[in-house]
Specification:
176 residues; 9 strands; globular
């Protein structure tokens, strides 16, 4: 699933897909996407929205939710080819996210509904457009190392002991 050429990189950006959806040219811009329609619950199960799921069951699966007949959010959480123009992709280490943002981000502690939610702290990433979550690489850490970062508190990504978590981008939401 490697993306190599500049054309492929542009094709697989969330922003390019969002433009195609907004401009009603999805079929011509992305003729190979397989689409399914469904309804899902959001907002802790309190909001029902129609969704379109593209490439369901593949690494390139992406979900677009709709509100009042218009695209609302695009959610991506697999290690496929989708990325932002920055470029932020699933699996990006938090150090590189900090570099892209131009300043250290903060992340929400783990073990609750918004585990790993990122605050961009006035950096270059537009928090009105993107919600990004990070996760520890549980295969690479001692369980005790994660306990220090539990709960709804926000932590500085450049604080002591954070590197032990091996944090990486685990999901991206693009807001239309």
């Amino acid at each position: 699933m490697k993306v190599d050429t500049p054309e492929e990189v542009a094709y697989w950006t969330l922003e390019n897909l969002a433009d195609a959806i907004r401009e009603n040219r999805l079929a011509s811009a992305y003729p190979d996407l397989i689409m399914e329609e469904d309804v899902m619950l959001f907002g802790e199960g309190t909001i029902e929205r129609p969704v379109k799921i593209f490439n369901s069951g593949t690494d390139d699966q992406i979900l677009v939710s709709y509100e009042n007949g218009k695209p609302f959010e695009m959610l991506y959480g697999d290690r496929g080819r989708w990325r932002t123009r920055h470029p932020i992709y699933i699996g990006l280490p938090i150090k590189q996210l900090n570099d892209i943002n131009g300043t250290a981000v903060q992340f929400a502690g783990f073990g609750w509904d918004y585990s790993g939610l990122i605050r961009f702290n006035g950096g270059s990433i537009n928090e009105d457009r993107y919600s990004i979550f990070v996760s520890p690489s549980y295969n690479d850490i001692n369980e005790e190392d994660a306990y220090e970062f539990m709960g709804s508190t926000f932590f500085d990504s450049d604080a002591a002991n954070v590197e032990k978590l091996h944090l990486y981008v685990s999901s991206i939401t693009y807001k239309f």
